[in-house]
# Entry
Amino acid sequence: MTSGSQSRMSEPPSQAPAAPLDVCITVDMEPDCPPFLWTWRGMEEGAPKLLDLFARHAIPATCFTTGDSAVHSPDIVRRIIAEGHELASHGMTHTPFPRLDRDKAKWEIETAAQVLREFGEVTSFRAPNLLFPNVYLPILENAGFTLDSSQGKHKQMWWFGQIDPPPSPPTSLTRIPASTTSSVMRLPAVIRDRFLRSLKGPVVLFVHPWEFVDLTREKLRYDCRFRTGVPALGDLDAVIRLFKNAGAGFRTMRDLAAGAA
Ligand SMILES: [Zn+2]
# Structure
């Protein structure tokens, strides 16, 4: 129900048609809201519902999966591959990289790659908490990664605007930042939709499987727990419809990078 494509009859058609908006839905497949819970309800109960939702909409997603999650829920990883989504890496144990020395960072990246590549091709990476020191980029390059989505446009200025991340040092990796934080999806629709419509492409949204189980009574930060469970699934469904109605094309991160090359 958008009116963005309407034009006034009195205005000459002076502009070329806008290119279709690219949207990537990304899922960080991990334990429940680390470092607060570390249980697995999201992978066990939330992830199947998410994959069902993507199947109903016939859209691909990119699933940044921790190695530990693949060990815990191999059937979910097999579904990710079988249903045409991109399997990607979210590190091994969801330990923030700024806390790791070089050897431990290398272990996280290489061990997760080894575990995940047992299931299929893995060439995209996102660091836990969108925190990845640039000095570790060569470790990703040497481990066969070609895309990094460890930056967030919202990190610089919450949600009052999209600010590009600082310039990247020279790297062979394509760097595509997340557009916004996941809890935006669960805001009241009137605020959320206005914000989402303002995002410039490519729009990289992300969610977590634990948002789709009811965590409202858990001892968590408010932004992690509000409207989790069934309402969150309805919210994501509405967001997908919003972009579909705007004529957006849904792509995996790998396909987006291939198109941009
Ligand atoms: Zn994460």
About this structure: Residues 1-9 have pLDDT under 50 and may be disordered.
